[in-house]
Specification:
The complex is a heterodimer of chains A (151) and B (201). With 151 residues, chain A is α+β, with helices and mostly antiparallel strands. Chain A is globular and about 40 Å long. Chain A is built from 6 helices and 6 strands, in the order E-H-E-H-E-H-E-E-H-E-H-H. Chain B is 68% helix and 0% strand. Chain B has helices at residues 2-9, 20-27, 44-69, 79-90, 92-105, 110-122, 125-128, 131-140, 146-159, 162-168, 176-192, 197-200. In chain B, helix 3 packs across helix 5, helix 9 (146-159) packs antiparallel against helix 10 and helix 10 (162-168) runs antiparallel to helix 11. Chain B starts with a helix and ends with a helix. Classes of the chains: A alpha+beta (151), B mainly alpha (201).
């Protein structure tokens, strides 16, 4: 096991913008944990359901093994998402310094070069949200108006 | 009167001439000699021009500063969005003209251009048409910066109209990932509007 509770096959998922504004003060980057590559939609659901606007996003699959090996502090925190069963899937890459942020940045570039990046279009995001609603994992009134109006 | 009520509820003042006392009641404007026609009605051109002048003088610098200084993240609202929304509620016609002016005047300023496109893409298509359309088309033709082109595609994807489909399906770019994104959006919009590929070909 590695800090943050990932099993070796588990990988955290991050979006390209890393919620820098939200986490700037605490020097951390926000990522969501997924069990495997086929599980990415779960992290996308967590991210999009908590947003203000429905817009295409890019997600990068990062390796928790690599990050912990390089000394990145992975701290499990409650995520800001209205999907209850995903709240605990959130992880902060915390206490980042100029040096450790560089490690994360280069890792992201490597993953993009390895094609471990996927763009979700608005239609795909709608399908993910609608599926969660039909499964009673998400209620529409928890979504921002601008998102709900597009579903 | 009904027209006025309907119009002011969305912040626009672009239909008809209104009696000064009614107009001032709804808009909070003081009616002066300059804004009244010889028939004693409010001159809409004057009102819109005054609003545009005010936007340029009081809010252009603020909007550009917000765009440049704020961290931007797709999916997350910004102060620039809030500023433009509030001005759209007050006077959509003047605000559209104002945004268009900033876009044109900053056509070589990439950060500002991107910021305007991102704000515009988040507004309802019908609110900002046709200025929004023209800005996004201009962005698509921006050969020197792929991010500007992407913002144009994103805007059309966000509006998701038949016009979006018509413009994007004929668009070819040299950057592979952007072309893949365009193709994906075109495919999405074809599904949305039940347009078959065969029919389009």
């Amino acid at each position: 096991m590695v800090p943050g509770g990932f099993s070796p096959e588990r990988r955290p998922l991050s979006r390209r913008d890393y919620q820098l504004s939200e986490n700037y003060a605490k020097h951390s980057l926000s990522v969501w944990e997924v069990i495997s590559e086929t599980d990415i939609d779960e992290a996308v659901l967590a991210i999009v359901s908590g947003g203000d606007h429905l817009e295409a996003i890019d997600v990068v699959l990062m390796s928790s093994d690599y990050l912990t090996e390089k000394g990145i502090n992975c701290v499990r925190t409650n995520g800001s998402t209205p999907v209850g069963d995903l709240v605990e899937k959130h992880i902060d890459l915390s206490n980042l310094t100029y040096k450790s942020l560089g490690i994360v940045a280069y890792h992201i570039v490597d993953k993009i070069n390895d094609q471990k990046v996927k763009r979700y279009t608005i239609r795909q995001l709608k399908e993910i949200l609608n599926q969660a609603i039909s499964q009673n994992r998400l209620t529409p009134d928890k979504l921002k108006d601008s998102i709900r109006e597009k579903l | 009167m009904d027209n006025l009520r309907e119009n002011t509820s969305t912040g626009t003042i672009n239909i008809g001439l209104y009696e000064p006392e009614v107009f001032s009641e709804y808009q909070g404007f003081s009616i002066t000699d300059k804004s009244a026609t010889t028939e004693g009605l409010v001159d809409e051109n004057f009102v819109n021009e005054e609003r545009l002048k005010r936007l340029k003088k009081q809010f252009t610098r603020e909007l550009i500063t917000l765009i440049v200084d704020e961290d931007f993240e797709y999916g997350v609202d910004t102060k620039a969005d809030a500023l433009v929304r509030s001005q759209m509620r007050l006077n959509a016609l003047a605000t559209k003209s104002w945004l268009n002016g900033i876009f044109v005047e900053n056509f070589s300023n990439i950060p500002v251009l991107l910021g305007i496109l991102r704000v515009v893409a988040r507004l309802d298509y019908s609110e900002l048409y046709p200025e929004s359309h023209i800005m996004a088309v201009a962005a698509l033709s921006y050969k020197n910066n792929v991010e500007v082109q992407e913002c144009g595609v994103r805007a059309f994807e966000s509006w998701g109209t038949v016009q979006s489909l018509k413009i994007l399906e004929n668009l070819k770019v040299s950057t592979q990932w952007l072309q893949e994104y365009i193709d994906e959006v075109v495919s999405d919009l074809r599904k949305e509007y039940n347009v078959s590929t065969r029919q389009e070909n």
